[in-house]
Structure formats: structure tokens, C-alpha cells
Design brief:
With about 300 residues, the protein is α+β, with helices and mostly antiparallel strands. The chain is about 25% helix and about 25% strand. It has eight helices and eleven strands. It has a four-stranded mixed sheet with strand order 6-7-11-10. Strands 1-5-4 form a three-stranded mixed sheet. Strands 2-3 form a two-stranded antiparallel sheet. The termini are far apart.
């Protein structure tokens, strides 16, 4: 079987501290957790991450693993010595053997699972989920109630799901893709160990009026052809309030007008960009058609000039 380099899986040096291991695991779990990741190999990567975390975060297992890694037989396709598991006794947790690799099982036995060594108390696993909020929630801050489906393993090892309702505080100025951490709302600890944390990845609900890009927000500002051509003072509505803006003369469709500091709140705050949308009046009456015909005669203009036939 292949030797697994748990340090490499977590992107760590062999001198990594417990905090380094925890930080690296959480960072990579946010990327590869099957509930949130779009990576094609997310499930396999997450299994490797769990296995690496379980070994390196347990002092006994880590010491034993380091001993094997430094052993001459600790090369790829090697097997541990016959007495490798001496002194390590682990009780089963009801998890399936397939959750861990043959390499792990050969080192610690098929019953070895995180936090299940006799007399140990271990922190529960961190959980990851997504939460959708309105853009206005980021501008103002809010409290939202969410319901999650959580897997639960009963005494017989059967996996069921239960609903878990939480009140979540949405911090003012949070960006899409950032995480809200709920301490102690992850997987239950073992023994007297604390529960893990729940990480909620923030997504904004689609909004026909606005879109966010990082801390900046964009919204369309409809204008008439004469407002764009001659310039005008216009009142624009944004999630941060209403503002009088000056449309410069000679503006074209798609021009951006910047409202500094009117994007998502923060230090620093983002900007709000009004994107000009030049809207043509319909030629739905005789008078309107006559005006367009007059423009065609009096204002000869070819927007395609210079583009060739």
C-alpha cells in the first residue's frame, strides 16, 4: 500500500504546531467539503484531510506516525512492522471502515476513529454549510433563522438526520464568500470534549437591481438619450440611500459613475457604481416618429462608421 504523507496533505512542515494543524485543516475543509465544494475530487480530498487531521491532532497517533515515517521501511508500498500497533488500543465509533484508508487501518486498526481511544476526550468535528442572505442584510446587519439537516449516529451505528434550527447574526459589511463562525454548533464532542464549530459560507440572493463584487456594488441607472448627451442631475436610489448624481454631458451607455464609500460597509467601505443605461423612447405615436425622423435628417450620425462593410 502507498505511504500517506499527512503533513503534505495539510500543506504543513513536520514541526507544525497544534494550532497550525487546526488552521490548515479548516482552511482546506472550506475548499473541499462536499457540501460546499465544486471540485470534482472534493470527497476524496476531504477524506484525506479528515484522516490527516485525526492522526496529527492526536499526540499519540502523531508520535507513532512520525516513528513510522522516519523508519527505513516507511517508504511507498511499505507495510508497518508486525508489532506496530502494540500499545495502541482503540474502540470503534460506528463509522464505516471505508471512511479511512488501508494505510490508516494498518497503522491503528480498523476500529480507530477520531477521539475514540480509551480515556480520551476530543473536540467534535467542524461542520460547513451555506447561507443565502439579501444584499441589504450586509448593509444593515441582521439576524436570520436557519434550519440545518445534521447527521446523527445512534447507539447501533445507524445514521439518521435531524433538523437543527439556529438564529444567525449577519455582521454588517460581510462579503459574499466569507464565513460566519458559530462556535460550538458543529459536531458533538466525545467524552467531555467540546463541540466543533459551524462555518456558514455567505452567498447573496440574486437581485435584479444590484450585484456585489467584493466590497463594491453595481446598479443600473436608466437615463434618456438627452440626459446622456446634454448632462443632467438625477436622483439615484442605492441600498445605502438616495443621492443626487451628475451625469456628465456626452455620456455613453455603460459609463460608470462612482459613489465613493457607498458600497458594502467596512474598513474601508466599498464603492457603489451607477452604470448608465441609455433608454430610447418608443416610436409609438405619430409625434414620436416625426421627432425621430427629424433627428435622422438633422443629425446625420453613423455609429458603425469605421467598422467596414
Amino acid at each position: 500500500m502507498d505511504f500517506k504523507d499527512y503533513y503534505k496533505i495539510l500543506g504543513l512542515e513536520k514541526t507544525a504546531s497544534a494550532d497550525d494543524i487546526r488552521t490548515a485543516y479548516r482552511r482546506l475543509a472550506r475548499k473541499y467539503h462536499p457540501d460546499v465544494s465544486k471540485e470534482p475530487d472534493a470527497q476524496a480530498r476531504m477524506q484525506d484531510l479528515n484522516e490527516a487531521r485525526d492522526v496529527l491532532s492526536d499526540p499519540e497517533k502523531r508520535s507513532a506516525y512520525d516513528e513510522l515515517a522516519s523508519h527505513p521501511r516507511g517508504a511507498p508500498d511499505s507495510r508497518p512492522p508486525p508489532d506496530w500497533n502494540t500499545g495502541y488500543e482503540f474502540a470503534g465509533s460506528g463509522a464505516e471502515d471505508g471512511d479511512y484508508s488501508d494505510f490508516f487501518n494498518s497503522l491503528f486498526g480498523r476500529g480507530a476513529r477520531r477521539g475514540q481511544a480509551h480515556g480520551r476526550h476530543m473536540q467534535g468535528e467542524d461542520r460547513h454549510a451555506r447561507i443565502q442572505i439579501d444584499l441589504a442584510d450586509s448593509y444593515q446587519g441582521a439576524t436570520r433563522t436557519i434550519t440545518l439537516q445534521q447527521p446523527v449516529i445512534d447507539a447501533q451505528g445507524q445514521v439518521t438526520r435531524r433538523e437543527h434550527t439556529l438564529d444567525v447574526r449577519i455582521p454588517k459589511g460581510i462579503r459574499e464568500g466569507q464565513h460566519i463562525r458559530l462556535r460550538g454548533q458543529g459536531g458533538a464532542g466525545l467524552g467531555d470534549g467540546p463541540s466543533g464549530d459551524l462555518y456558514l459560507e455567505v452567498q447573496f440572493r440574486p437581485d435584479a437591481r444590484y450585484r456585489a463584487q467584493g466590497a463594491d456594488v453595481y446598479g443600473a441607472l436608466p437615463v434618456t438619450p438627452w440626459e446622456a448627451a446634454l448632462g443632467a442631475s438625477i436622483t439615484a436610489t442605492t441600498p445605502a440611500g438616495t443621492f443626487d448624481v451628475q451625469v456628465p454631458s456626452g455620456s455613453q451607455n455603460g459609463r460608470k459613475l462612482r459613489l465613493r464609500g457607498r458600497g458594502l460597509p467596512g474598513e474601508p467601505a466599498g464603492d457603489f457604481y451607477l452604470v448608465l443605461d441609455v433608454v430610447l423612447p418608443p416610436a409609438d405615436s405619430d409625434k414620436a416618429r416625426q421627432l425621430y425622423e427629424t433627428m435622422a435628417r438633422e443629425m446625420p450620425f453613423n455609429p458603425r462608421q469605421g467598422q467596414g462593410a
